[in-house]
Design brief:
2 strands, mainly alpha, 2 domains, rod-shaped, about 45% helix, about 80 residues, two-stranded antiparallel sheet
Length: about 80
């Protein structure tokens, strides 16, 4: 008497468990990388400014620059 049906179902269970483990690992990686993406969106250039020691056109709120520089508005002329 062969037990091929039992072997097939055990293979399916093992493959499903490995697949579930891979999905959990990927979910953890995606959740942890969210903080890095959010930090990139706070940069001064993304906010439409430029980093400088002094601002002649006003300062942008929320933009981050390195050191003691400020995120300054870029002066543009509207048509």
């Amino acid at each position: 008497m062969k037990k091929q049906g039992v072997e097939l179902s055990m293979n399916v269970i093992i493959i499903a468990a490995i697949g579930l483990l891979v999905l959990v690992i990927l979910a953890v990686l995606v959740i942890n990388s969210g903080g890095r993406f959010q930090g990139g969106t706070q940069s001064c250039s993304v906010k439409g400014g430029v980093c400088s020691a002094t601002c002649s056109n006003g300062e942008l709120s929320g933009g981050t620059c390195e050191g003691s520089n400020r995120c300054c508005k870029i002066f543009t002329v509207s048509p």
